[in-house]
Design goal:
22 helices; 78% helix; 0% strand; transmembrane; transmembrane helix; MFS transporter; AmpG_permease/AT-1
C-alpha cells in the first residue's frame, strides 16, 4: 500500500486536481443552485426535474469531441487552450444569469443554463484528454491515481465550493442572482490554474499515423481525408480494436452503471427541502461533509484500484451504491434528522467517490491516446446519458408515487442491479485489459 501511495508523488496530479474543480463547479451552477432557486420560487417537482434536460448536452458532447482532438486553439496549446476558452464562457454566462428573475425570465434562465452546459461539456472533453495525455501510455497505476485525484477535484468544485451558495442564501445580503456573480468570480480565479498547468507533450501525428494504419480511410480528397480522420477514425478505431460485440458490451455497462445514483441525485435537493432541512443543513451536510468524505474515499478508491484492480473497484462500488440509496428511504420515514443525514451523506459519498474513480479509470483504460479526448467523450457521454435523459423524469416518478420518497429511493437502489450483473459477465475482459503488456525481446 505504501508503494501505491508513492504513485501520487507527482506534480502533474495538482493540475489534474484543479481541473477537476473546474469540471465540478458548473454542475452546481445548473444543478443544485438552480434547483434550489426554482424550488424557492415555487416551481413544481416535475418542472424542476425537466430543467435537468439541460444536462443532456453532456450526453452529446462526443459529437464535437473530434474537433477538440484535431483543432488547436491559438493560445496555450491543444488541451489548455480549449479549457481556458470554455472557462471564460462559463464565467460570462454566470454574470448574465445574475441579471434574470426565476419568475419572469424562466426561458432565459434555461437558455443561459444551456450555454453553461455546452461550455462545461466542451471543457470536460479537453480536461479528460489532458488527464489521459499527461500520463504515460500503459501506466495503469497512473491512470487510477489520476482518476482518484480528478474525482477529488470534481467533488471539491461540486461539494466544497458548492456549499458556498447555500450558506450565502441563508444571509440577508445574497439571493440566488447575486450568488451567480460569486460563482462566476470563482471560475475566473480557476482560469489562473490553467495558465500555470503544463501542456502534455504528445506526438499526436505519430499516434494518428499508427492508429489510422489499421483503418482503411484514405481517399484522394484532402478534405475527405481530414473529415474521416477527425470524425470517423476515433470511433472506427475503438470498434476495430475491441471488436463490435465487446465494444458494445463496454458501452452498455457504462450506460447502465449510474442510472440509480442519477435518479437520486436529480431529486436530492428537492427532497431535502421538502422533508424540512434548511439551506444551511444542505450546505453543511450535502455539500461540505460530502466533499470531505468524497475526497477521502476518492483517494482510497484510487489505492484500491492500484492494489486490487479496476474490476473489483467497480463491483464493490456498485454494491455499496445500491445499499446507500436505502439510507435516504430511511430519512424519508423519520423526517429531518441531521444525524441520520450525516450518516447517509458519508455512505453516499463513499459510493459516489469509489464508483466514479473506478469508472473514470476504466474508461481511460479503454482509450487510444491518439483519440484520447474523443473516445473518452464517447464513453463518458453514455455514463452521463443516464443522468440526463432518464433521470430528467425523476420528478414525474415522485409525483406518480404521490410524493412517496421512501419507495422512490428503494426503486433507485434496484436500478443498480442490472449493471452489476452485466459487469460480472464482462469481468474477464476488464481484467485482461488491466494486464501490463508483455516485454519485447531485445
Amino acid at each position: 500500500m505504501f508503494q501505491s501511495l508513492k504513485t501520487f508523488n507527482d506534480r502533474r496530479y495538482l493540475s489534474i486536481f484543479l481541473f477537476g474543480i473546474t469540471s465540478g463547479l458548473p454542475w452546481v451552477m445548473i444543478g443544485s443552485v438552480l434547483n434550489a432557486w426554482l424550488q424557492d420560487e415555487g416551481l413544481s417537482r416535475s418542472a424542476i426535474g425537466l430543467f435537468g434536460a439541460i444536462f443532456s448536452v453532456y450526453s452529446f458532447n462526443f459529437i464535437w469531441s473530434p474537433l477538440i482532438d484535431s483543432v488547436k486553439p491559438i493560445v496555450l496549446g491543444q488541451r489548455r487552450g480549449w479549457i481556458i476558452l470554455m472557462q471564460g464562457g462559463i464565467a460570462l454566462s454566470c454574470f448574465v444569469m445574475a441579471q434574470f428573475s426565476a419568475t419572469s425570465d424562466l426561458f432565459y434562465l434555461a437558455l443561459v443554463g444551456l450555454f453553461i452546459a455546452v461550455f462545461s461539456a466542451t471543457q470536460d472533453i479537453a480536461i479528460d484528454g489532458y488527464r489521459i495525455d499527461v500520463i504515460e501510455a500503459k501506466d495503469n497505476d497512473g491512470l487510477s491515481a489520476a482518476s482518484s485525484v480528478a474525482t477529488a477535484g470534481w467533488w471539491t468544485g461540486y461539494g466544497g465550493l458548492g456549499a458556498i451558495p447555500f450558506f450565502l442564501a441563508d444571509t440577508n445580503y445574497f439571493y440566488w442572482p447575486q450568488i451567480y456573480l460569486v460563482l462566476g468570480a470563482i471560475m475566473l480565479c480557476l482560469m489562473v490554474a490553467t495558465l500555470f498547468a503544463k501542456e502534455p507533450t504528445v506526438d499526436r501525428k505519430q499516434l494518428l499515423r499508427a492508429a489510422s494504419a489499421t483503418i482503411p480511410l484514405a481517399t484522394r480528397s484532402k478534405v475527405a481525408n481530414w473529415l474521416k480522420q477527425t470524425l470517423i477514425a476515433p470511433f472506427a478505431e475503438f470498434f476495430t480494436r475491441n471488436g463490435v460485440r465487446l465494444a458494445l458490451s463496454f458501452l452498455l455497462f457504462i450506460f447502465l452503471f449510474k442510472i440509480g445514483e442519477a435518479f437520486l441525485g436529480r431529486m436530492s435537493i428537492v427532497f431535502y427541502k421538502e422533508i424540512g432541512f434548511s439551506n444551511s443543513d444542505i450546505g453543511t451536510y450535502s455539500k461540505l461533509l460530502n466533499w470531505w468524505v468524497t475526497i477521502l474515499f476518492s483517494l482510497a478508491g484510487g489505492l484500491v484500484n492500484i492494489r486490487y484492480g479496476i474490476y473489483r473497484g467497480l463491483m464493490t462500488a456498485g454494491i455499496a451504491m445500491a445499499a446507500s440509496n436505502l439510507m435516504f428511504a430511511w430519512i424519508a420515514e423519520t423526517g429531518p434528522d441531521v444525524k441520520l443525514l450525516a450518516a447517509a451523506v458519508v455512505i453516499d459519498g463513499f459510493t459516489a467517490a469509489w464508483s466514479t474513480v473506478a469508472m473514470v479509470a476504466f474508461i481511460s483504460l479503454l482509450c487510444n491516446r491518439a483519440f484520447s479526448a474523443t473516445q473518452y467523450a464517447l464513453m463518458a457521454s453514455l455514463s452521463v446519458a443516464g443522468r440526463t435523459f432518464v433521470a430528467s423524469s425523476s420528478g414525474f416518478v415522485v409525483d406518480y408515487l404521490n410524493g412517496n420518497w421512501s419507495l422512490f429511493f428503494i426503486i433507485t437502489a434496484l436500478m443498480v442491479l442490472p449493471s452489476l450483473y452485466f459487469l460480472y459477465r464482462i469481468r474477464h475482459k476488464i481484467k485482461a485489459l488491466e494486464m501490463p503488456p508483455l516485454p519485447t525481446k531485445g
